[in-house]
């Protein structure tokens, strides 16, 4: 079986040495964990890296030769190492990867107990996210700087505006098809497929509506409803292809556009989700409605994107007159 699911430390058998040494049943169950138990590709990639690193550490540093020899002490020592070398959220995510894997192996009768089940991760409590945010003027500056006379300009402006005005994650935006932009009650709507396969629909802000109409008409893709909404540009042609725009390409595009617009803030794909939520709340929107629009299960998650306090802090800092 070939996949990007296998941890990078896998040997010639296609499996990490500890898994291979634990027998065929363990190998099959291990592969099933990544192939069947984890559907989100980003989670799968992160878990694969965490599991691969842990198993390599077990073999190289702890002298362990099979999965059944892994004990809570080993997991605890490795997580302690992760907490020293990485952020607390990263260490907690890696512990979660091990817990889920060993749970899967226990239910598959490969192991008797879960050695990660009793291990506690580092404490971490966040009341504000780390995603860089643009203020409304910077967001408008960026959008206005894009040359909308070319297919690539129309595409880039529509993608950035979609993330700002609909609070869409970049993965959901890039996963859209042309048919996911549709008219309902004389208004343009967008259909997003967010984490966990949840489908989320919302009406377009009038600015976004204009940008999407301009993109669809200018790119000539309205007759391809099943095709990807945001597409790559053919090398040397300047025309859209039939291939969806990869997330890494979207990130590179955003960096180029921000630099060309003179934006000093170091931004990323997630910046526009936080920018839109903050702008909405600053203009009288409620946290509950923001959570619904962002498709958050809890307003606690939405609060991580609320950066209104940043301006308060800046104003207060300026009171220090020396």
UniProtKB/TrEMBL annotation:
Transmembrane segments: none
CDD domains from the UniProt entry: INT_C_like_6 (cd01196)
Residue intervals of the Core-binding (CB) domain: 21-106
Keyword Acetylation: no
Every Tyr recombinase domain range: 129-319
InterPro entries reported in the protein's UniProt record: CB, DNA_brk_join_enz, Integrase-like_cat_sf, Integrase_catalytic, Integrase_recombinase_N, Integrase_SAM-like_N, Tyrosine_recombinase_XerCD
Matching Pfam families: Phage_int_SAM_1, Phage_integrase
Keywords (A to Z) from UniProt: DNA integration, DNA recombination, DNA-binding
Keyword Transmembrane helix belongs to the record: no
Highest taxon listed in the record's lineage: Bacteria
Family: Belongs to the 'phage' integrase family.
Identification of the protein by name: Tyrosine-type recombinase/integrase
Source species of the chain: Paeniroseomonas aquatica
